[in-house]
Amino acid sequence: MEIKPCFNLKMRQANRVLTNHYDSYLRELGLTIAQFSILRTLFYMKQTSQKDLQEVLVLQQTTLTRNLRPLIRSGYIATSPSLEDRRVTLVSLTDDGIELFNKALKKWTLAQESVSEKLGAELSGQLLDVADAVIKLQ
């Protein structure tokens, strides 16, 4: 009997390896790659609703909330009700959050360059193409 590879298992294994790699670069700042991704997205989006942030990051609401909580508690992210709809919570980086993002960006860049160097240009491009194709499955 032939055992067929499982796409999901392989992607999850690869994700764990990449996550550990990026986390090792960000650890001294007290960040995980998941938290850095939130900071990075908010840096470019400025102020946005949690729902829109959730959609951009392709996260479930509970996962986003779990990752936002320590960043809000530490003063890196501010929350406020939307002026148009008070039921909507808006999130944005604070000045401290922007400062942390800029420090973390340097570490992330080193991690990114390390992965790119290890994979090479062709595989790095293929990795991004495959990831984009998988994301479009939803």
Please describe what this structure looks like.
By secondary structure, this protein is mainly alpha-helical. It has a three-stranded antiparallel β-sheet. α1 runs antiparallel to α5 and α2 packs across α5. It has five helices and three strands. A hairpin with a 7-residue loop joins β2 and β3. The longest helix is centred in the C-terminal third of the chain and has 41 residues. The radius of gyration is 17 Å and the shape is globular. The model has no long low-confidence stretch (mean pLDDT 93).
The CA-CA distance between the termini, in Å, is 31 Å
Strand order of the largest sheet: 1-3-2
List the helices and strands in order: HHEHHEEH
Strand content: 5-15%
Q: How many beta-strand segments?
A: 3
Share of helix, binned: 55-70%
Major beta-sheet overview: 3 strands, antiparallel
Kindly state the mean pLDDT as a whole number? 93
Count of separate DSSP helical elements:
5
The radius of gyration is 17 Å
Helices and strands, with pairings:
Layout: H1 7-26, H2 33-45, E1 48-49, H3 50-57, H4 61-73, E2 77-81, E3 89-93, H5 95-135
Antiparallel strand pairs: 1-3, 2-3
Helix pairs in contact: 1-5, 2-5
